[in-house]
Amino acid sequence: MQMKTRAGYVIRQLADTFYIIPTGQRIADRRRCLKINQTGCVIWDLLQKDLSWEELLSAYTEYVKSIEMTENTKTVKPASIGEEASTVTAASISSDLSTYVLTLFQFGMIQASAKEMQVFPFAPFQAKGNAYYCCYNIAGIQVHYKGRKEWLHAFFEPFLEDGKENPSAHMVKQSGISQSWHVRPLSDVPEIAGELLLFGSQLDVYRCSGDYMLRFPSNHHLVLCTLSFDGKEAVFYYDGSTQQEAVDELFYGFRAAFFYLAALHGKYALHSASNYYQEKAWLYSASSGTGKTTHVKLWEKLYAVPVLNGDLNLLGMEKDEVFVYGIPWCGTSGVYTTKKYPLGGIILLKRGTENRVCKLPQDERQLYTAQRMISPAWTEKQVDDSLLFAEKLSDRIPIRQLYCTQEPSAAAVMKEYIDKYLTI
């Protein structure tokens, strides 16, 4: 294979306008349509033939020269309909063609060999000039990134190893627990083949012969991630966009791979907001909309208690003590920390007409805590591991239920309870 169209796309004319339209599985994958003009149709037809970049450029140049004598020169440039044609020179022909083909790459509509990607002009995935390497330390896990700097969410920056960029991080020997994140173009995306473990609006998981495949059905930019069974290698297939929407998709794709590896090493993510009180972290967990963020903000407003993370907390154990580890993922709160704190307790919030704290029996402490975890539960073993970790938590830290309103008195009742607990 050199460079050719992907199966699952067709050109159709709607009124006076041409579109490349997805079919079948491409529709299920939420792939987008692309509006093109007549010249775009010609290039699409050329790409049916599996051409090298040089062959495609030569054929397109011949096409441009063949219509130079016609009056309809505005159809030469294969860009948006209505744009003026470029002045026809060898440089402009190459530029116009590469811009259009790059768009097809970004939409996942064509595929190419690694060799063709290296010679293709302006490709965002070229090894030379655009490659960026760095190393992060997140919760004691070393993450090695290879891609482009513009694709990284700003929340990663405080987690840079040694607090600074390391453009040679790909040469650093991995030590301890580590994971690599390698971003690849949509042209390289493999066909899905394996056992479907779960499917949903945001994530499908397949178990294949050598790895997991994570498909993101609602995404427009990050399509797929392949994740090795040992969690050390994660490859993300991405359209190369630098729009914030696209960067956010990649950010949460990284999270799925990271939480998988973290769970393999005994660290589990709990859907919760957290604050720092009496030299300990306290977690407030609830389903979305119950008011966990509202609750920690009440503490902040009334008692100047700082919020650590507004949405997610990673828990682990060291020498029989439970800790909360700082991570960059924090929902829409924008509040997170890079530090590690001893865990004081977990408070399970439930809406009520009055504010009161209740103890829970052992089975409910274990079950309710496990239910609030968002670490992978794709297999029976992963579920069993989550339940076992929740049991260990319930034996070591207080897990309470707070029936609460959204009034300031809710924070006052909880603070009073914690103060009394710490004096026992």
Task: Characterise this structure.
This protein is α+β, with helices and mostly antiparallel strands. Helix content is about 30%, strand content about 30%. It is built from eleven helices and 21 strands. The chain has helices at about 25-30, 40-45, 55-65, 90-105, 115-120, 125-130, 245-265, 290-305, 360-370, 380-395, 410-424; strands at about 5, 10-15, 15-20, 35, 110, 130-140, 140-145, 180-185, 195-200, 205, 210-215, 220-230, 235-240, 270-275, 280-285, 305-310, 310-320, 320-325, 340-350, 355-360, 400-405. The strands form four sheets. The chain has an eight-stranded mixed sheet, covered by helices on one side. It has a five-stranded mixed β-barrel with strand order 14-15-19-18-17, surrounded by four helices. The chain has a three-stranded antiparallel sheet with strand order 2-3-4. The chain is elongated and about 90 Å long. About 40% of the residues are buried. The model is unreliable at about 80-85 and about 125-130 (pLDDT under 50).
